[in-house]
């Protein structure tokens, strides 16, 4: 009876966990994946013209009579409003429509509101706003846009409501319940099937896989290139998106554009862009990379402990992902699963005696090394250290034939992985440029970096890093009880130390550099927890045990507040996914003007480091140096090459993506200014961003 009771409780816990996961997946589907149009709360209305007239008046509390229309919302999606202007002239320099009486704009503007159900014109409200008259479909209303706080007023011109908001919430709730039941039933059948046919797969491991699926999605939900973001990704992400977009247009890396990143990273960017014909496809590959890396880390530590601790180690160990990748589309994200795979294979070496790897494992180790190498060199630290460690260990055991076998198969795997890239480079006559840019230039870039010691302190002295190091100290104290794991622990800390050095190689403290350390953190946590458990079992005092539990609790809470990469800071960054028409408004305004005055065959140039101007305006770069900062500080010859490119090519438009850059490099800046003054006309100048058109285009 007691045995049945225990089995019943275990079954109960399992079902409760499965129900919770089913509900979370159902909520994800209902609230994030199902388009707003599917709910059809309002009847569809035909396109409508709406007239907005600034009255030049304000209430007694307002400081000014300005009117600003920020954006449109149609069936849950937001749209930049300047695209829908039928007539009238307002100030659209900030990607919204603003009227103020000292600018000489017409008092009225007509907007074309597209077809839709729920349709809203969103006005900006603040202490500076005045009165606006709204006219549409024979109706007229005066709206006061004054507000004591900066906010928005959504003027509703939706069609007749099919049902109210309350009914909508009930429908969504019913959808969550219905989909949860379906998901739960599918999972139950899946677990029954795996239980019968795959005896080695635990149901709890499948539960862990589902949790990792949700956690990995949560980690990258806030990325600026996610499906839920309306933002234009920032440097360096916008440059990488341009690379993917330009390759989809047939451009060749290193030949048609200059960037010192690896060829396989460029392939990923191109593949991602082609998946959806937008940068959302890149985000999908990012999420897959994070998911696979976390899953591999789970299987790495699952060999040594139970389901709960393994899952706990992955979630805590990868918590910093939310903060480190908050902007999205970094090279390190795509190297992370290969690093996790390399760590898993290196761990396999110690699983069974005699210590060795089979041929397939060595081959895959070589493949994973080369793929990481062909994305970014400083991502390869774990292979150099791990392979060196294994070779030394084999030498100590006098297994010389094994060392030769390992070396040959590893090199063969690396060659097989490099071969597709080599063929691509040779066919496109880009091998010479690849060597010059990816290797020679990169070494110069690293040599001219920042403070390496400061970077080591910055990335090493996080709370998670301190816990990992504390695990090393505790391992020394408990060395007798951990004797069977001594080689594994020694190799792990060699991997961790060198990964920290590789992370800090450039001397800069950009957060995404630390991504390559993330697959190592779960193992460090396991070592720490194992040591704490050993100490805990040797204690006889309940008071000391309680104190130890409190310390562990405070450590877990501390992960939320660690200033160098915490969960709360990452979650706060998720607010970036919300729509704001002013976000990177210069890129939107400038790109729109480029599209209006040039055709798709004409090329442009951006001075500085703002790749978004290219792919938002849908124009290729006239020069392979589509950005020049910080390239010109590493190789001064790039200045002359770039100047020669724009003088010969005479791009249709030139964007100065930051006037400070021209001031910083005096001679280069002066030549650019002289060239622009002689051949171009300024069309836009705000926020240190300038747009110039060739004189024959604007005449």
UniProtKB/TrEMBL annotation:
Keywords: Membrane, Transmembrane, Transmembrane helix
Entries under PROSITE patterns matching the protein: PROKAR_LIPOPROTEIN
Domain of life: Bacteria
Transmembrane residue ranges: 163-186, 206-224, 280-300, 307-325, 331-350, 357-374, 380-396, 408-427, 458-477, 489-510, 516-536, 543-561
Protein name: Glycosyltransferase RgtA/B/C/D-like domain-containing protein
Higher taxonomy: Bacteria, Bacillati, Bacillota, Clostridia, Lachnospirales
